[in-house]
């Protein structure tokens, strides 16, 4: 194994661990504040991943620009406004 692969593996592990940490913190925050278990985080992350895939692969936009667009578009806000809020009424 070359040192480049080792460094790449370490960085990938740190990024994946950070993602798991953010998901866990989100679930913990929702549970502690609302006293209910909310599992919609996975849906929101998948919508963001589909947005990145759509722009990066299909429209051949730069990967970093597609990630930035997915973060700016805030799919969770639209999900809440279109799906959750009408169901609460």
Shape category: flat
Largest sheet: none
Low-confidence stretches: none
The SSE order reads: HHHH
Mean pLDDT: 84
Tally of strands: 0
DSSP strand (E) fraction? under 5%
Distance between the termini: 58 Å
Kindly give the count of domains: 2
Enumerate how many helices there are, as a single number: 4
Give your account of this protein's structure:
This protein is mostly helical. The protein has 2 domains: 36 residues; 50 residues, no CATH class. The chain is 84% helix and 0% strand. It has 4 helices and no strands. Helix 2 packs antiparallel against helix 3.
Short descriptors:
single chain; 89 residues; mainly alpha; 2 domains; 4 helices; 84% helix
Write the topology of this structure.
Elements: H1 3-34, H2 41-58, H3 63-73, H4 75-88
Sum this structure up briefly.
With 89 residues, the protein is mostly helical. It has 4 helices and no strands.
């Amino acid at each position: 194994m070359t040192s480049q692969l080792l460094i790449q593996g370490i960085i990938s592990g740190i990024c994946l661990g950070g993602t798991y940490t953010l998901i866990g913190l989100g679930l913990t925050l929702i549970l502690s504040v609302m006293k209910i278990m909310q599992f919609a985080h996975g849906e929101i992350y998948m919508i963001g991943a589909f947005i990145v895939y759509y722009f990066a692969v299909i429209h051949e936009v730069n990967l970093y620009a597609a990630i930035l667009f997915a973060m700016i578009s805030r799919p969770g806000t639209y999900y809440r406004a279109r799906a959750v809020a009408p169901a609460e009424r």
